[in-house]
Structure formats: C-alpha cells, structure tokens
Amino acid sequence: MGDGLHFIDIVIFAMIAGFLVYRLRGVLGRRHGEERRRPNPFGQRPAARGAADARGSNDNIVTLPDRGRPPAADDQESPRSLAASLDAIKTADPSFDEKHFLEGATAAFRMVVEAFARGDADTLRPLLDDDVFDDFSTAIRQRERDGESLETRVERIQDATVLEAEIKGRKAQITVKFISDQVNITRNQDGKMIDGDPDRSVEVTDIWTFQRSLRSRDPNWLLVATRTPN
C-alpha cells in the first residue's frame, strides 16, 4: 500500500513539473514591456572592439572598443559541432530561427557602427550589454574631449556568417563574422578632415558575439563582445 502511495506521489510531482515547463516555454520570446526602448532588430519581426580610442588607423578603419571573448561559464558544456549547437538553442527556444537571427544581427551591426560614429548613445543602449555599452560610451566621450568627430557609412555588408554557437548555463551565445565595406572620416574641432577619404571605402572584418537569456521574456539578443580576426 505504501509503495502505491509513493508511486502516486511521483506521478503528481511529474505532472506539476511538466506544467511548470509548459508555462516557462509559453513566456519565452515575449517582451516584458517594462521600459520604453528603441526597436531592437532581434525582436519579433514586425515586417520582417584592447583600445578605448575610437580614432581611425592609416587604413581608414575605425576600431570599435574591444570586449574580447565573453567570459567562460563554469558550467560550459563540452564543445559540439556548430549545427548541433544551433539545434540545442532551437530546442531550448523553439522561436529561434537562424535566418531571422542573421537578419537581425546584420541590421544591428549597421546600426551599432553608425550610431557609435555619431555618438548616439540612445540608439546603442538597447543593443549592447552593460559592459560593452560602458566601453563604447567611454570611447565616445574621449573623442568628444579630443574635439574630434567621426563619420561612418556602411556601404555594403558583404557577408555575415555564424562562426560559433553555444549554450552557457541559461544563456545562448552566437558569434558572427561580418565583412563590410565602410567609409570612415575623422574631422577635428574645426571640421577639417584629418583622416579618411569620403570617396574610398575599405573592407573591414569584425567578429561579434551576441547573447540572450533563454529564460527571459525579452526576445532580444545583446552584443556582449567585439573583436577582430587574429
């Protein structure tokens, strides 16, 4: 008789656990709406880079504040293939779609690069995690103290390719390589051009890592690391 009651208890607990999992997945991908924010390109489709110096090099390439690779989590899983990692993210978040993610990542890349050049912190804020935003803001303030202004135009994004994907604890991370053609011009406080060529674009390669909590109601991915190829 005691064994029978024990079995019934197990069944009841299993039903409760299943119900909780169902409720949890039901809220993944929904925004919490706690604050007013500019649109994030990773949101549900409505229609579908160590230096803090933001000055350009002799090749007219603007260096973004470098956050390097995100810190590894203690519970990081063993390495797996890219396809398997993407499948794991899809399993944890059924709303995830690689094509949709890359479209959002590409849009975010253009927005971040151009907003950084303008010094537009309002646009950058909802797209970056706190540490990256602090680095970008520091670089913008330093540029302003130097009396310089930066103009950047992303003329074309040649390629956006997923390099890495993984789940670390409760967070999914995806690393993307962007190859773009950019025009970058630096002017001094008198408006005189001191670097760059408005009629010449250069090819720039960036590697960015985006992250999203799999248990958050917010569907948006944030930029958590930027780097250049080794």
- CATH class category name: Alpha Beta
**SSE series:** HHHHHEEEEE
Give the helix/strand class: alpha+beta
Runs in which pLDDT lies below 50 for 5 or more consecutive residues are: 19-39, 43-62, 71-78
Structure notes:
- The chain has 230 residues and is an alpha+beta fold.
- It has one domain (38-227): Nuclear Transport Factor 2, Chain: A.
- 34% of the residues lie in helices and 25% in strands.
- It has helices at 2-27, 82-92, 98-118, 121-124, 130-145; strands spanning 149-168, 171-187, 193-195, 202-213, 222-227.
- Strands 1, 2, 3, 4 and 5 form a five-stranded antiparallel sheet that branches.
- The radius of gyration is 22 Å and the shape is elongated.
- The N and C termini lie far apart (67 Å).
Structural key phrases:
single chain, 230 residues, alpha+beta, Nuclear Transport Factor 2, Chain: A, five-stranded antiparallel beta sheet, 5 helices, 5 strands
Quick structural overview:
This protein has 230 residues and is of the alpha+beta class. The protein has five helices and five strands.
Detail the topology: elements first, then pairings:
Layout: H1 2-27, H2 82-92, H3 98-118, H4 121-124, H5 130-145, E1 149-168, E2 171-187, E3 193-195, E4 202-213, E5 222-227
Antiparallel strand pairs: 1-2, 2-3, 2-4, 4-5
